[in-house]
Amino acid sequence: MAGEKKTAPTLPKVPETLLKKRKQNAEARAARARALILQKKKLQDTKREIFKRAEKYVREYKRKEQDLIRLRRVARKHKNFYVPAQSNLAFVVRIRGINGVHPRVRKVLKLFRLRQINNGAFVRLNKATINMLRIAEPYIAWGYPNLKSVRELVYKRGFAKVDKQRIPLTDNALIEKALGNFKKK
Questions:
Q1: Helical packing angle, 127-135 and 103-111, nearest 10°
Q2: For 93, which DSSP code?
Q3: What is the pLDDT of residues 69-99, one digit of tens each?
Q4: Helix-strand-coil percent breakdown of the chain, rounded to 5?
């Protein structure tokens, strides 16, 4: 047995630190993959929820439209007129400056939070606010907003306060994250 050589224990060809790093990277990749799968599932659920909500709104608007047609037909049948209800929301924009403004008008503009030219505010319409609008009529422009104009306004000029920071509203995910999910039961 003189021909046999005793070999020393062989060292691994890859350093141990590199092996640990590879293991950590593999675990991190697996965690990211699991998180991505969960995120995709959550996104699918959210899309399904949004679609259901949109269908509900479509049904609601269709029902309102059919009610409006039905009320018009009933009124016509009884030789009357149907006068639809007026909107109870208005958007008010200031269009003139401050020079020579009567104190009453200035107070109305302050109450509407219209301190500068081109400032705008949503106002709930009732007898008092309509009278206030009449007082400030030469200094403001107002009208009834539709869904498209409100959406454009909010996405263009809307901001939210999240963690004491003023962040522009870009999509609904930001609102859901900041405000939570308030579902009507």
A1: 130
A2: E
A3: 999 999 999 999 988 888 899 999 999 987 8
A4: 55, 10, 30
Partners of 168 in beta bridges = 159
CA 141: distance to chain centroid? 25
Question: What would the two tokens of residue 85 be?
Answer: 């209800």
**Residue 6 phi/psi, 5° resolution?**
-85, 125
Contact 97, 116 (CB under 8 A): no
* Contact between 140 and 94 (Cβ < 8 Å): yes
Report long-range pairs for 127-131 (Cβ below 8 Å, ≥24 apart).
129/90
Joined together, the tokens standing for residue 50 give 């949004």
Place of tokens 């593999």: 26
Tokens representing residue 43 in the block: 């996104």
| Three-class secondary structure of residue 16 per DSSP | helix
- Residue 131 near residue 85 (C-beta atoms within 8 A): no
147-178 pLDDT, tens digit each: 899 888 888 888 888 888 888 888 777 877 77
Written as six digits, the tokens of 102 are 């009567």
What pTM was estimated for this model as a whole?
0.59
CA distance 122 to 125: 9
User: What b-and-e string marks burial along 75-98, b requiring 16 or more CB atoms within 10 Å of the CB?
Assistant: eeeeeeeeeeeeeeebbbebeeee
Helix (H, G, I), strand (E, B) or coil at 165: strand
